[in-house]
Amino acid sequence: MTAPQEQPRPGGLTLNGRGFTPGSARVAVLGAGVMGPGIALVFAEYGYQVDLCEVRQPALDAGMASLADALNLKVHAQVCDPASARATLARVTPRIGIAEGIAHADLIVEAVPEDREIKRAVYTQVADTAPAHAVVWSNTSTLDVFSLAPPAVAPRLLVAHWFAPPHILPLVEVVCQDPVPESLREESVALLRALGKAPVVLEKFVPGFVINRLLRALGRESFDMIESGVISIAELDVAVRTSLAPRMQVLGIMQRYDYTGLNLSLRNLADPDIVDAPVNRSPALLQERVARGELGVASGSGFYDYGGRSTLELQRERDLRLWQVMRGLAEHASDPKPI
Q: CB 3.0 to 4.6 Å from 162: which of 120, 166, 244, 251, for a disulfide?
């Protein structure tokens, strides 16, 4: 199979009322941890010059290595050709500190740690250093960043929450509130779609946004059933992979109710024999592993033992399987309309 050529460069886009096209617009991605490299990769793939900024050299080196490895895996998965991968990597400039990156940016993607004071300091520096027209997208997964921005930044700050790995998964949750104009939200959504993403707009801010809140509810039931001896960890994952996961890719949550029948769904929700799991913010299943230092992939074990394989090796295997899934979904991945 012939690998696809370089992504087409989007045209006709504006951001904050100014043209936002590859070759002229510049993007600064702040943070080279879990999310920053993948977000930088996406913009660079579509022809934008990107500054990937970090405060520590080892973290920046690791972020650039992660970005390069993700591109190599795309070539291996035949979703990118080698020449396009090299061109993408060449568009990313690594920088220590954020001052130089934001000084000439048209879009600043803030992907720094989920710490209010760190984010507040970043927004203050943006107000002092970045161009007055530069738009700021925060990749926060839970925080009310709007309360942290100074007046000079508040009218151009939106949440654009990507999902890991951001260069593979299409979803971006978009949240904004006054004084951000509706036109800027619409421009941001149009830009995300031009980048091959599937943005969803929340009508108002809620801590955790949508997907993280759904995951909390799903985790609450999962931990309770495992701790109650209903099912093992491995069997629960098999059950989800072979039922909920593929069906949700086609129907989501709400359309599934239509196929079940709303009358039957109402009866099921009212069934007195099914008791919801109690709210437990510190399940023993997590507490015990954290106390033992079993933190997941990064430590080599969590709910599973990873047999000494490196984090990078495990991420490659995960991402390769995700690429296979996304290729199977085809256009439904970026335009997931109801059937």
A: 166
Same domain, residue pair 151 and 38: yes
167 belongs to the catalytic site:
no
The span from the CA of 171 to the CA of 251, in Å, is: 15
Tens of pLDDT, residue by residue over 256-302, are 999 999 999 999 999 999 999 999 999 999 999 999 999 999 999 99
Share of residues in the chain with pLDDT > 70 (%): 98
Cis before residue 131, ω within 30 degrees of 0? no
Catalytic site residue from 76, 104, 133, 161:
161
| Tokens describing residue 157 | 């700050």
Distance, CA of 261 to chain centre: 33
Q: Position 125: which residue type? A: Q
Where would I find the beta strands (DSSP E) of the chain? 14-15, 18-19, 26-30, 49-54, 92-96, 107-110, 135-138, 157-162, 171-175, 198-201
CATH of the domain at 80: 3.40.50.720
Do residue 236 and residue 309 come from a single domain?
no
